[in-house]
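Box 3.1 A note on notation
Throughout this textbook, protein chains are presented in two layers. The first layer is the amino acid sequence; the second is a token string describing backbone geometry. Keep the layers aligned when reading.
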Amino acid sequence: MSEISGLPPLPGREPVMRALADICGPDFARTARSVDTVAGRRVSLVAVPGTDRAVAETVRLARQRGLAAMPRGSGSKIDWGAPPPGVDLLIDTARLSGMWHHRPTEFTAEVGTGTPVRALQAALALQSQRLAVDPPSPSATVGGMLAVNESGPLRHRFGTPAEQIDRISYVDVSGAAGESDGESGAPGPAEIDGVITSAAVRLQPLPQARRWVTVAVSTPLQVHNLVEETLAADLDPSGIEVDLPAPGVVRGAEQPPGSLAVLLEGVPGEVERRASRLAGVLAQGAEVSGIAPRWWGRYPFGARDVAMRVSVQIADLHAAVYALHDAAGESVPVRGSAGLGTVHAVLPGTLEPDRVEGILDSVRQVLLARSGEAVIVSAPVEIAREVEMAGRRSLF
């Protein structure tokens, strides 16, 4: 066997490959390619089951053969969390896609978890409806979004993706099928050990008009004050987001300030009036646009950065960001929901792991008295193997 795989060398894998081909079909079981990696290591095999039953049989086969298996949607977040020692089998959910039982008058539908969120929204838009989610990962699937409860700006008004689910169907690590409504102790989507196969979702009307009110900001304290004014205006915003490329730094002309942006949705005319009113409240050169800022709904970090998520009460968010700046000893870009007190901060991926741990510990000390938390969600693998990472790995 190889150093990181539970499978024998390539010739001895043929029985497993044949079994996977019998379950998934001959075109949907293969040896891994260069793109089939987890934490920088190529896996051994990839299976693409097309039904719940095939998922269950694939999971049971992995269990019987002692293979480490992991589900994969688009793979946009597969390297989040603590890196596993090795993965033998990726269970790709691409064929678990589509929408059925769509009842437009009841605003409900059932969706396969391999469905790309963007494709789902395009289909729902034909009925002037949407699932009120906007995960920042452009290629996110419904299952990948639910697995980490990935939220974008719309969480401010509509809650997390998990809060918009009535029921999920899944296959657990033993290969048994299950359903959960997330109540009475039943597991929620992010707590499932196994493969989520479908979700019954609650839908919302597609807004006829959207306007973003944007104002330039330079410091976390200024953001805090403007968020308070926005909330006090009682204009029912769908999202309140901040982008501070380098908080706490005095900016010259060559370094533009950050931005606070507020999304208002509804019917034409009424949305325009609300946007105009908010622009007057914020003043300071606030602008109204029908187009989102370029940074809106995007993560501020890349694959080679250390991404820290900071969550705290809105009133304490500016203190948390200042604490992060002090702990790092330099400017730390932040972006996220100023209206909910949850942002992502970016640390250089070139830092030593113990330095990352030190910054994390310092910020946590400040947040302790404020009922907040700070966690590392993503980092280069050489750092992720050495520091405490957030999230759970559905590895079985």
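The domain at 99-205 is CATH 3.30.465.10 (Uridine Diphospho-n-acetylenolpyruvylglucosamine Reductase; domain 3). Residues 128 and 362 are 47 Å apart (CA to CA).
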